[in-house]
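Agenda item 2: adenosine monophosphate complex prediction
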Amino acid sequence: MDCFGTKHCLFLFVLINNVLLTLQTKEEVLLDMKSAGGELGWLQWPSEQGWEVLQTVVNGSMFYTYSVCNVVEGEQDNWLRTTFVQRRPAATRVFVELRFVVRDCNSFDGASLTCKETFNMYAAEADADVGTSFRKGQFRKVATVAPDEISVRGELKVNTETKVVESLSRKGFYLAFQDLGSCVALLSVRIYYKICPATVLGLASFPDTVAGAEGGALREVTGTCVANAISQEPPRIYCTLNGEWVVQVGQCRCKPGYEAANGSCQACQAGYFRASLTMEKCDLCPENTQRSPAGSQTCPCREGFYRAPEDPTSDGCSGLPSGPRKLLATVRAGKLRLSWLAPADTGGRDDVEYSVTCQQCEAAVCQPCGEELRFEPRPAPLREPHVTVSGLEAQLNYTFTVEARTGVSRYSSQRATSSITTALHLTETPAVTLIRLEKRSSSSLSLSWALSQRSGRAPRYELMYRKKDDGTASDITTYTVLVLEKNLVQISDLVPGTVYVFRVTVLNPDGTPSGNSVEHEFETTSLAEPQVSSNTPVVLGAILGGGAMLLVVGGILLLHKRRRGTHSRDGAEDAYFSGSADQMKPLKTYVDPHTYEDPNMAVQKFATEIHPSHVSKQKVIGAGEFGEVYRGMLKMPGRKETAVAIKTLKPGYTEKQRRDFLSEASIMGQFSHQNIIRLEGVVTKFKHAMIVTEYMENGALDKYLRDRDGELTSYQLVDMLRGIAAGMKYLSNMNYVHRDLAARNILVNSSLVCKVSDFGLSRILEDDAEGTYTTSGGKIPIRWTAPEAIAYRKFTSASDVWSFGIVMWEVMAYGERPYWDMSNHEVMKAINEAFRLPAPMDCPSAVYQLMLQCWLQERARRPRFADIVSLLEKLLKSPESLKTIADFDPRVSIRLPSTSGSDGSPFRSVVEWLESIKMSQYTENFTRAGVTTMEQVLQMKIEDIRNIGVRLPGHLKRIAYSILGLKDQTSTLSVFAV
Ligand code: AMP
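Presented output:
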């Protein structure tokens, strides 16, 4: 045999040593021929021929290699078997690295027939070492080992091959190398498996793991978070066949109070904090906090500084705000506007809110202002630094206190306030004293008039005129109405030689006629007569002079000859009740207290007398016509104490006032129905007369709904209407005509039951702010009242039904003002021209149809309250019927408060427009959103309006309506013709 030279063996050893070094970190070696150091003890079979062991000394150490080279002896079958190799249970797959040299067969003379250039590798598993027992049949072939390079004489080529032995399952195994007649030197055999070494990755530690799973799959390994770290799901990672960690899942993070450093979680240093689970560093304690101890999750606030519950604990702390600045009260159009500047110091917060409270103080005794004050928007919480207050009584002093609060105000009893005391000084509206003819012709008359006193503001006038003989021909008079800004006018297009009646009234600041009017007749010249002129040159207003005329209503008013009705309720005589016998004969009929000679008798007959010691007043809840209304308690002997409302009669009353005051009790005492406010009794025998009624926790319906805009279901709203209708059915059956049915006169209790109230006889004339003097003399809440009641005071249950229709609209529109800001004249004109209120947003179709029925011009065709109750009950029994919603088209709205500037020109600025629709509180929202021109406003859609922060449905509607109105200046009235 041809031996491998010692030099070559030495060279091979150095090479092998290098490889060993690089593998150390990732491989676990089960057997290494080279590092065995001594006799290997491998079994050679047959023992005398075949594989031979060679010894080589390198640096004084002995190394062994095996070789075989029987290339010319004919057929060979020589085996070399390793010692028993113990396996680690996880190592089912091992690598065998062979380093060997194969000689070229051609380099042996005459050996070409039998000489081979490959050898085979086999493996056999066993649970124990079988010693020298060797049976070929137990081995399975793993691979044929072929050299990449064959060695020729004088030039040795070392080959390295790595073979894999898979699916090992028993405790150990042997490898065997079979030679079939080649010239091979086996320099090194190294058996190893790979491992992913134990590591800490992403604050999770993973153990040593044998690489690869069955079938070559990745091995999934679960780790554990390092100390003071946690993870939501267990951290996992995969170990590849090559012993590499890949794809980590489930991140560990340091607990609050710790930070990640060098693969571990370390407590935050003193003065630092960390509030959340994190991979990040601790933060320095923020503003206005104390230095925290080591390991802190948050830094405590310094004294006098706080965190609101909604503030993140990682934020700094804030101080209390200072008070609002420069509180200012201005009066405009009978309303008071309070405005102020934000606190100089907000404590570093941007959640400043304000609340406004009102007190009335007299002789150092203060009490909260009554509920009749209306705040727009609500007085608390306010985001904007202004609020408008209406319902103030002229000449009374009110003290308003504005408090600034932020999220941390609750932690201190200290209040940041600013107060102002103010009164609403209403200047008396002057009256017209005389009308003068300045100039006349056959077709025109120029008039001027004088005032009783100078007025601070420029007054506006209402001029009505008609041909004189129109008033005599029929019941109905047609007037032409002009609204003027100056006290002179020229009327053109008149008929020659005709007498005209002119009536001039000064308008109150709110646009209602003041009631003091002067009437005069003037005649146009006949065609033959020359033009007559007075001495004074006339500065012509209206038609000639530019800009003097504010608005020409050109309306037609139905007026009836004065028929000043008494206060008796005249429902029974009305043809309206000529329907069924049931309705004609109520079980009980209401008795007008005025039919009693002594009205005190009426009170005694219909009301229970209460001793004042049984009544205790607690708090003012409203202001009635005759005095304050209190919430209080009633404790009658032998009865449970109950909450009551107590109406009082203010001192200094006249006997007539006392009678009128108590007449309400005389009326109320005759009724007993769950939807009519219940009279508990009266105090009449003592100096301070009182009327005691059941207490209605939720107060007046209009305010209640306005405060809950959009918050109730259609079912709840319709159920409220059913209650009101039931109360009205009861009243109409008793032949009682209410005359002032409106949401403000309905009270709501804690179970949302609605009850009809306000039964005073003189109330409509005196008490109701909505009452407006009509040209026929009486004072009437125009927008709630049926046309026949306005025109000729025909108050009947059918006119109550009309009012009920308006209440239905108010309820479905969450307390919206009927006909919005149209003037009373515009309302009457519209109704007369058969226009009706459009359906409120989201109003069930059936409910709107019922409203339209209530508003039929011909009163006999309107439904009766009995019909209304049964229809509403039917709707409530099948709530599905409420799902069909009436068409709501804001473009078909009744004319909006303003579709253009006061002079009819388009609005010049967003501010001016918002002011005109009383939505100034959103000015900043528009500015912030960059909407600064009217062109931009016209592009806005309802979502845009909502997005800039207008959230209240009522306000959204108002702004959207106005934009639609601006787009379509020509459509001024709805087309809901009946
Ligand atoms: P009145 O003079 O009846 O219009 O009452 C004036 C105000 O007092 C009403 O608008 C209510 O806010 C309140 N009020 C009157 N009666 C009651 C009552 N029975 N329960 C609760 N509040 C009432």
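Discussion summary: The two ends are 126 Å apart (CA to CA).
Owner for follow-up: CH.
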